[in-house]
Specification:
Keywords: Membrane, Transmembrane, Transmembrane helix. This is 88_t:CDS:1. The chain crosses the membrane at residues 27-44. The chain is an all-alpha fold. It has one domain. It is 88% helix and 0% strand. The protein is built from two helices and no strands. The chain has helices spanning 2-13, 18-50. The protein is elongated.
Amino acid sequence: MPLLAALQMVAANVHAPATVMFFVNRLLAKMAFAVTLVIVTNHLKDLFLHK
C-alpha cells in the first residue's frame, strides 16, 4: 500500500523517537491488517451470495 509507505517515510523524516516510531508502525500494521480483513470478508461474502 503506497499510502502506508508514504506515511512511514514522512514519520522517518520527522526524526521521531524510536518509541514513537514503534507505536506508529504498530498502528499502521493494525490498520493494514483491518483493511485486508475487510476486503477478504467482502470477497468471501460475494462468493457465498453468488452461489
